[in-house]
# Entry
Amino acid sequence: MRVAAVQLQTGARPTGGRYSGFAGCIAHDGADVTSATLRGELRMDEPMARHTSWRVGGCVERSYLPADVDDLCAFLATLPESEPVYFVGLGSNLLVRDGKLRGTVIFTHGALAHIRFEGNVVHAEAGVPSPKVARFAAVHALAGAEFLAGIPGTVGGALAMNAGCYGGETWNIVESVTTVDREGRLRQRTRANYEIGYRKVSLTTDSSDAVLRTHPSSHIRHPSDEWFVAARFKLPRGDRGKARATIKQLLEKRIASQPLSQHNAGSVFRNPEGDYAARLIEACGLKGYALGGAAISIQHANFIVNTGRARAAEIEALITIAHDTVQQKFGIDLQREVRIVGEHS
Ligand SMILES: Cc1cc2nc3c(=O)[nH]c(=O)nc-3n(C[C@H](O)[C@H](O)[C@H](O)COP(=O)(O)OP(=O)(O)OC[C@H]3O[C@@H](n4cnc5c(N)ncnc54)[C@H](O)[C@@H]3O)c2cc1C
# Structure
């Protein structure tokens, strides 16, 4: 039996702190979900500008910071089927529009934060920052995760985006992942269950079919109704000092080439095959082009920076201008890397 969370339907408004508003809800397996079982933090109308690296965005209707993986599973199981759910890590690849964001955002950063190692494997939960994985692996003399040091997101975001740089890619070092679905069920998956490309990851059709077959009662309507809660990174033994030196070198390269003192979300567009989005945008004369508080970075043309009081609408308009100008001048249809969610104000 699956019963909607009473709280979501009555519109009562908890204001933060430990959540105690789910008393009386019943999970899909019939178990009572009470304030005693839910230990996370529910907030209403949380400003997303606090949770994105661009520091812009309107309010999300509801957000939940789980206490741990079990608590996340219990919370998801209480949500009505119609409730849109969106996972957010450090919001470093995310533009949230200025209007409302409907549904519930699950924040993983500061929540799913465990990291440990066993032999050659680093096990990290989805909310662990990627740079921490890089440093942790280096400290334990494991090689191959150094590239994560400069990617300012979480493990969950790195898995969802197949984040990478300087020749390294997240999924090249993944042994397996743990996922959770809308009903709070955990699954173990391997690389073979995903189609993985340049900044692209999706469950294979086979895998989503398998889920539906294995669990006939499942309400998974789309592969994106499954999210990452942890990953196992398999890494070869390396040299501690060498790994640390590589991390230092990679970070120095970034400091020299990226506008890190201004709020941004990294590269806005994927690089087209055989070229660089930054080169194309710069060749259109758009470096420094500004709209309100948003500007195409003078330092790196594939970055858009918030120079003070930018609105998401200004950033989005700049993205369109860069895209359309490159298309007109070079006939290249740049593909966006940053994700855009929410409603216009
Ligand atoms: C200065 C700077 C430099 C950057 N450099 C790089 C770079 O070199 N290479 C690179 O690839 N990226 C880079 N990025 C972009 C960004 O840091 C990465 O894409 C990062 O992996 C996003 O992680 P996040 O936790 O911030 O994800 P978010 O921005 O929070 O989310 C991004 C997407 O992932 C989804 N997601 C988040 N967590 C989960 C989860 N647990 N399960 C399922 N889906 C989830 C979200 O729903 C969203 O669609 C850079 C960004 C900045 C600001």
